[in-house]
Amino acid sequence: MQIIPLSEGAFTIDKTKVFVPFDKDKDDLQERALGSLLVEVQPFAIVTKKDILLIDAGLGFSNRDGVLQIHQNLLDNGINPMEVTKVLMSHLHKDHSGGVSKEDKILGASFLSFPNAQYYVNKDEFDYAIEKGSPSYTPEEFRILGNAGNVVFTTGDGMIDDYIRYEVSGAHSPFHQVFWIEEDGQKVFFGGDVAPQLQQMKSRFIAKYDYDGKKCMELRQEWWEKGQAEHWTFLFYHDIKTPMIAL
Q1: For 2-39, what is each residue's pLDDT tens digit?
Q2: CATH code linked to domain 2-246
Q3: What is the pLDDT of residue 108?
Q4: Of 89, 141, 169, 207, which has the highest C-beta tally within 10 A?
């Protein structure tokens, strides 16, 4: 497998849930609002024998040329966004689902950003996110999934094509799901926002922003122990320094 981090940059976020760009070479975290968290926003592309996978869809920001940032990141790594075959969504918070669709301002309509891919989205998470709305969710960015023909709504735990396993973890959001991708003896694990950073795997950290912080902590400990024993490759969506680590 080829694993490609698709960093959209570093951001600070506070209780307003607004993601503010952060230049790690110039900006000072102490000058941001009290309680601000410093995070990377980092989807992943994984090239397997069968698929070009995208794991989560980023913030949905566009660059100065109007190109969706996640599209540009893929192109910069030699991948045509139209060649993505599967989009695996851990949950629909706006920093993970903003790139699900793109608005065409001329036509006045939104279109899926990866029209040739199957999107895998937990159905309960979708329903919850539509109802819950802002500030954590932005339904107008993913509502299109409800009527799209290339969306697979998952329920509970299961398998995709015999090599991708998904499991409802809850904990960060009520219906958050995580993924294992296994090929040729390599096992890649994406824990989304239940396991967003390396340092959190190594401590008994409990975050107030999680739906169930204690469960998040317990799951991280469980996965870290099992991952070490089975030599998983961990992917970290919000880690500033370590996007992935192979054990």
Answers
A1: 999 999 999 999 989 999 999 999 999 999 998 899 99
A2: 3.60.15.10
A3: 73
A4: 89
Distance CA 36, CA 14 (A): 4
Give the closest residue to 244 by CA, choosing from 204, 178, 191, 208.
Answer: 191
Q: How many CA atoms lie within 13 A of 1 on its CB side?
A: 25
Residues 103-134 as b or e (16 or more Cβ within 10 Å = b): eeeeeeebebbbeebbbbbbebbbebbeeeee
Alpha carbon 88 to chain centroid, angstroms: 8
Q: Give the pLDDT confidence score for residue 133 in this predicted structure.
A: 95
- 206 burial level (CB within 10 Å; 0-12, 13-18, 19+): middle
For the chain, the domains span 2-246
DSSP character at residue 190 = E
* pLDDT, position 99: 97
Task: Please name which of 3, 5, 22 lies closest in space to residue 14, comparing C-alpha atoms.
Answer: 22
